[in-house]
Specification:
By secondary structure, the protein is of the alpha/beta class. The protein contains 15 helices and 19 strands. It has three domains: about 170 residues, FAD/NAD(P)-binding domain; about 110 residues, Orthogonal Bundle (Guanine Nucleotide Dissociation Inhibitor, domain 1), CATH 1.10.405; about 120 residues.
Length: about 500
């Protein structure tokens, strides 16, 4: 069958390869002149900056995906485990996170008994992770009966209605430990108080499975997925924004590009922003969700991104660093209140610490992410004040002048996400993983209105983040096999 995939993010690339492998005739139509979606790469003045994902997590899910093709990720790109994974700079303490045993020792120094508590916390996280893989990550949700009733006792035991915040606090008293384990909720699109405790499985993914880095940057992972797609016969069309999805008698018939070109299709999979697809590419009668639904949907934070090239190396800097040396509660409250603060929490990635190929010799490549509310565009003055605050805190941490060493600078905010990816409210990570927006309550993978229309990516199941988006592609493949059978 003829399949059109709208968008060449990881979800689109992963879906296209699977469907082509099943024997379908697949074309990806991408609005931009590059592939990878948010995993865009800047190459300038000898620096290579990842503009999107920078944490390679859950390597087992990548291994599972490539196994569909009798391949391994290492056939397409190389990853290394970071040791330590990252550093946390808090108001009172500075700690480095390693594997389980070393991190137990680190935690034990901060709180008596915390090493043993971490064992219990991570064991519970592993149990949740295995549970999620068995019952939810690869369940196509086509019918409620597809969810195994044998999963309910475990689900009740994990108490998904309780918050991530409460779960971590039930184990640990030290604030630095608590913040270290809670910060991952930012990438799930919310605060620790709004995200379900079920996602505390991320502690296991972080510490036991590890944080990895693809040599050359995430662009190499994109290149690997592109190569896999082409090996399976996928046709890729760039620089072609889609203007409209055409339908007839309740089924898809194709897409029309901005240039007016019609591409016929029996099946369409949208990896474009879900809200954009529904509200802008479909006729009103073909939409599943109303404008009111989208207005009420809780989206993840947006981000201010700073890309900095330094003409020197920074002693003591690690690949990843989380700066919590400001008011934790104020930052999360500002996201809920839709306000910008100039003394935020922030994340720093300096991949040139691990990979000399991405910066000129003797120089440093730094990427800074500041979570800010979605739907709010920071002013030029606010971005300047935030950057000055970040530099001051980094200079204090590393005891060196950074301002005078900046040779490359670029900043982006919600406008970038809106214009580059048609991102609803300029959100960085799609729909939040709140209790009311998890599992069956997330936007659907398959249209109820139009036969042959599917959605893949961070808005739908299983959720946000590259590993889960790739899992989403597997779910779409299952749906289409269920609905149409294999083309082989």
């Amino acid at each position: 069958m003829k399949v059109v995939v709208i968008g060449a993010g990881f979800g689109g690339l992963a879906t296209a390869s699977l469907l082509a492998h099943e024997g379908h005739q697949v074309t990806i139509v991408e609005k931009n002149n590059y592939l990878g979606g948010r995993a865009k790469v800047i190459k300038q003045d000898g620096f290579t900056f990842d503009m999107g994902p920078s944490w390679y997590m859950m390597p087992d899910l990548f291994e599972r995906y490539f196994a569909w093709f009798d391949q391994k990720p290492s056939d397409y790109y190389k990853i290394i485990r970071l040791k330590p994974s990252y550093e946390v700079v808090d108001q009172n303490d500075q700690i480095k996170i390693y594997d389980r045993q070393t991190t137990k020792n680190v935690f034990q120094k901060l709180e008596n008994g915390a090493g043993e508590k971490l064992d219990k916390y991570l064991n519970e996280g592993r149990s949740k992770y295995d549970f999620a893989k068995k019952y939810y990550l690869f369940n196509n949700y086509s019918k409620i009966t597809k969810i195994s009733f044998s999963s309910f006792p475990a689900l009740v035991k994990y108490n998904p209605l309780s918050s991530y915040d409460r779960k971590v606090n039930s184990y640990f008293k030290n604030e630095t430990i608590r913040k270290t384990l809670k910060f991952m909720t930012v990438f799930l699109g919310g605060s620790p108080k709004s995200i379900s405790s079920l996602y505390s499985l991320l502690g296991y993914a972080d510490i036991d499975l590890g944080i990895w880095y693809p040599i050359g940057g995430f662009g190499q992972v994109v290149a690997g997925f592109e190569k896999l797609a082409k090996e399976n016969g996928v046709k890729i069309v760039k620089n072609q924004p889609v203007r409209h999805i055409t339908t007839k008698d309740g089924r898809v018939t194709g897409i029309v590009t901005q240039a007016g070109k019609l591409i016929e299709a029996d099946i369409i999979v949208s990896n474009a922003d879900y809200q954009h697809t529904e509200q802008n590419l479909l006729n009103k009668t073909d939409r599943m969700y109303s404008r009111d639904y989208w207005q009420k949907l809780q989206t993840s934070p947006s981000s201010i991104l700073y890309f900095i090239g330094l003409n020197k190396k920074v002693k003591g800097m690690l690949h990843h660093t989380l700066f919590f040396d400001s008011d934790w509660d104020e930052h999360f409250a500002s996201i809920d209140k839709k306000s910008i603060i100039t003394n935020p929490l922030f994340y720093v990635s300096a991949p040139s610490v691990s990979d000399e190929s991405i910066a000129p010799k003797g120089m440093e490549n730094i990427f800074v992410l500041v979570p800010v509310p979605s739907g709010v565009r920071p002013t030029k003055k606010e971005k300047q004040l935030i950057f000055a605050n970040i530099i001051r805190r980094m200079e204090k941490k590393y005891n060196t002048n950074l301002n005078n060493s900046i040779t490359f600078y670029r900043e982006e905010d919600s406008k970038y996400f809106e214009e580059e990816f048609n991102s609803y409210r300029g959100s960085s990570f799609g729909a939040s993983h709140t209790t009311r927006q998890s599992s069956l309550l997330r936007p659907r993978l398959k249209s109820k209105k139009i036969k042959g229309l599917y959605y893949v990516g961070q808005y739908t199941n299983p959720g946000t983040g590259v590993p889960l988006v790739i899992s989403s592609a597997e779910l779409i493949n299952d749906y289409i096999k269920e609905d149409y059978g294999s083309a082989n």
